[in-house]
Amino acid sequence: MWHSPVRPRRTVAMSVSHSSRLNKLVREQYMRLPQDGRVQVTYVWIDGSGEGVRCKSRTLDQEPKSIEDVPEWNFDGSSTAQAEGSNSDMFLVPVCMFRDPFCLDPNKLVLCEVLKYNRKPAETNLRHTCKKVMDLVRDSHPWFGMEQEYTLLGINGHPYGWPDNGFPGPQGPYYCGVGADKVYGRDIVESHYKACLYAGVKICGTNAEVMPSQWEFQVGPCEGIEMGDHLWMARFILHRVCEDFGVVATLDPKPMTGNWNGAGCHTNYSTEEMRREGGLKHIEAAIEKLSKRHHYHICVYDPRGGRDNSRRLTGHHETSNIFEFSAGVANRGASIRIPRQVGQDGYGYFEDRRPAANCDPYAVTEAIMRTTVLNETGVETKDYADH
Q1: For residue 284, how many C-alpha atoms fall within 13 Å in the half-sphere facing its CB?
Q2: How far apart are CA 182 and CA 86, in angstroms?
Q3: Is 347 left (phi over 0), alpha (psi -120 to 50) or beta?
Q4: N or C end: fewer C-beta atoms under 10 angstroms in the chain?
Q5: Which segments within 234-379 are labelled E, that is strand?
Q6: Surface-to-core class of residue 67, CB atoms within 10 Å of its CB (0-12 exposed, 13-18 middle, 19+ buried)
Q7: Are strands 39-46 and 53-60 parallel, antiparallel or unpaired?
Q8: pLDDT tens, position by position, 204-225
């Protein structure tokens, strides 16, 4: 009897980093060692790209109980595209402290602002002006919730889990999908979620997105400056978790050309008067103000003045056209979406769908407050330093 030859099973070698293949059990042996009351503090800051994060650690003799207990530090700005080598020292000013999900209690993660040698904010320190604006509008009690989309890539830059020399099936079964043929990298997503909860980041949800290997997590509600602080720390934790798994998380707004969804950072927003009964009229008034300042917002909603978003905001794939402002109830193809429940209740919040995945949340939330509460118009911003 003739037997057909057995074909060898085709194996797909996932593109992961060499470091992720190190023996993690060996690492655990050292991580369990006692610290004799001393504490490891990891300082985290935004680098000169306005998108990347950097970190370094130091030892404190006792556990800091508040951000005031964490001393300022410094770093070499010439190695982070933030200073010249001849005058490279930059200051790290601690602003927000979290528990460390990697080294565990009592160790800390500390988010920092970056100041130049003359104590002026570095060019990518957008928190500095955001904090001033948020202090001015504190009586309006602005709440934000930001939906951070991202895409998992192999170390070779190709979407994680995609065929090496092709594409997965068309979009449709992947959004909030379940099953090995529909989602890629759930272990990473769930590890990031737990790490954020442990750290004290106000993460409130996650889901698989429309494009395979694309995911989203949500942070909020956060009031004022807290929104930027918590989203930046959530991003740092995401990159660190991905480092452990040997893959890369990109915030590129359009990582794959063609008939694939891009990645945004939809921003949900309300003030106290919008959240009260009859607040819909205040929501509509804010949207009217935003409609008259569309170009300004597009310029600050990605780190390249709108050039990144121009690849994403095409009017297709659940986006609005970058050149046109639009708003509607339950309309995911509009610049601004009013949730259907808000339209029915007559109060609540609205969603600005224009910010790119790689936006700076400090810039986004500051711009929204300048337009809707401080009533700024045009493309110029007002300096409130002397007020």
Answers
A1: 10
A2: 52
A3: beta
A4: N
A5: 248-250, 265-270, 327-329, 336-338, 350-352
A6: middle
A7: antiparallel
A8: 999 999 999 999 999 999 999 9
